[in-house]
Amino acid sequence: MCADSAQWQQVNRPEEGRATVFALKSTLKLSGGRTVDIDGQGFLICYRGRLQAWKNECPHAGSPLDWIPGQFFSEDGEHLICHTHHAVFDPASGDCLSGPCPRGLYPLPFREAGEMVEVPVTA
Ligand code: FES
């Protein structure tokens, strides 16, 4: 395996208005120099024909956004909703449109690879 492929994982391209959830490792640096590996998630969406990838971590209190695993969109499909305190996000920009968030969603890189999409292993 080359070094570059170790940084990416392939996931299915989501259908319009849907999301594909994927595992995402993070390393937290503690005082004193220790590090802790954390298992997190990212999610890839298709909104109005365009893909976007975000960390599944609400910028308000850090909880996962999905109200049912893999369900991020509002009923009308026009927004992403955090299930914890109901912050509302723009699916295209990640901006927080309403709710207690101090900022928008954390973007992740992605690259299209034929029928699949490559997303990062770590963030
Ligand atoms: S944790 Fe998402 S709005 Fe509070």
Give your account of this protein's structure:
- The structure is a single chain.
- This protein is mainly β.
- The protein has one domain (8-120): 3-layer Sandwich (Rieske Iron-sulfur Protein).
- Helix content is 0%, strand content 41%.
- It is built from no helices and 9 strands.
- It has strands at 8-12, 19-29, 35-47, 50-55, 80-81, 88-89, 96-98, 111-113, 116-120.
- Bound molecules: FE2/S2 (inorganic) cluster.
Describe the structure using short key phrases:
9 strands; single chain; binds FE2/S2 (inorganic) cluster; mainly beta; metal-binding; iron-sulfur; 2Fe-2S; Rieske_2Fe-2S; 3-stranded antiparallel sheet; Rieske_2Fe-2S_sf; Rieske Iron-sulfur Protein; 123 residues
Quick summary:
With about 120 residues, the chain is mainly beta. It has one domain (about 10-120): Rieske Iron-sulfur Protein (3-layer Sandwich).
Helical run tally: 0
Question: What is the level 1 CATH name?
Answer: Mainly Beta
Annotation, overall tally of beta strands: 9
Low-confidence stretches: none
Alpha-beta classification = mainly beta
- Assigned CATH superfamily: Rieske [2Fe-2S] iron-sulphur domain
> What does the largest sheet look like?
3 strands, antiparallel
What percentage of the residues does DSSP assign to strands (E)? 35-45%
Question: How many domains is the backbone divided into?
Answer: 1
Please state the second-level CATH architecture: 3-layer Sandwich
Ends distance: 20 Å
